[in-house]
Amino acid sequence: MASGGCPFVVRAGTMEPYQPANHAGTRNRRLIGPDTVGARMLEVVLGELEPGGEARRHAHPGIEQVCFMLEGRARVECDGREEEIGPGDACFFPADKPHRFTVIGDRPVKVLVIYAPPYGEDRARVRLAEEAVS
Prior knowledge:
By secondary structure, the protein is an all-beta fold. Helix content is 3%, strand content 47%. Strands 1, 2, 3, 4, 5, 6, 7 and 8 form an eight-stranded antiparallel sheet that branches.
């Protein structure tokens, strides 16, 4: 739940970190979502990835995803195309499209991730690499 006096304010440092399915070297904190502030249409997650960390190739059935880079550099891959992104850049992963996110360089990455509708880290709503190629 949100902390403090306002039920719609969330402090990242108070949220319990977790490692998402199909990720390595990643620590996420769910900021905005059904379980934190009652959001029904979107979810916002703060992701921190260590050097060498990655979200392996996967897809989210019926869920769109945006990544907004706060710190560090990453290589994103979607629909057979790759691009490097850094602070101030954003990328969009369409629903059902296999994608990958990999930290490049020797600095950690901090990224704001937005899902619509909320993902909630439901393992039933992610297709892993071998399933995502179809």
